[in-house]
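seq as requested:
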Amino acid sequence: MKAFLITTILIVVIFVNPVSTSAQRKITQFTLETGNAVTAMPFVGAPQLFYTNYHPFTTIGARLVWKEKGNHAWEQSFNLGYIYHRFVQHSIPLFTETIYRYDFNTSFSMRAHLGVGYLQSIPGTDRFELNDQGEYEKITNLGRAQACVKFSISAAYALSQDLQLSLNYGVLGQLPFVKSYVPLLPYNTIQLGIAKNISK
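struct tokens:
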């Protein structure tokens, strides 16, 4: 029931609201980002991204612009991702972000992202239980519904009129991971990405 409720709310937020304003707002960019995610304390654990285990984190997304004035802009993004945390879980986050963008010039810009969404957590190893015959049998497990929150900062450089190269550092929180002793599982993330502008 909880999974159904979370999924329904997210679908309403991501799809219904943009569709209702489609006459004024249109998707302006498609994005692809990939990099690493490590479980560590937010921000202070960032150096571990470069010397500890590699947990691939890839996202695809789309952006629209709510408001743009001078060097300032407010954007919205809609993203689908995948994280492989070896021996622990496969994570599939589906989330939206509100983004503030500042353009230093026509080539370089920076963004602050604040996101929230749904995350499907699928066990990274097989699980077994003892059956009535006293034998262990594999459990079919499609995972469990979780929530996720994300804060990140990014920088982007225009390679051409239509393409941008970006670098994104952030913290992705998964909750509730284990209610009894790890209610929030934080991932430090870093991703290199590319964005394709859509012709107006």
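The chain is about 10% helix and 60% strand.
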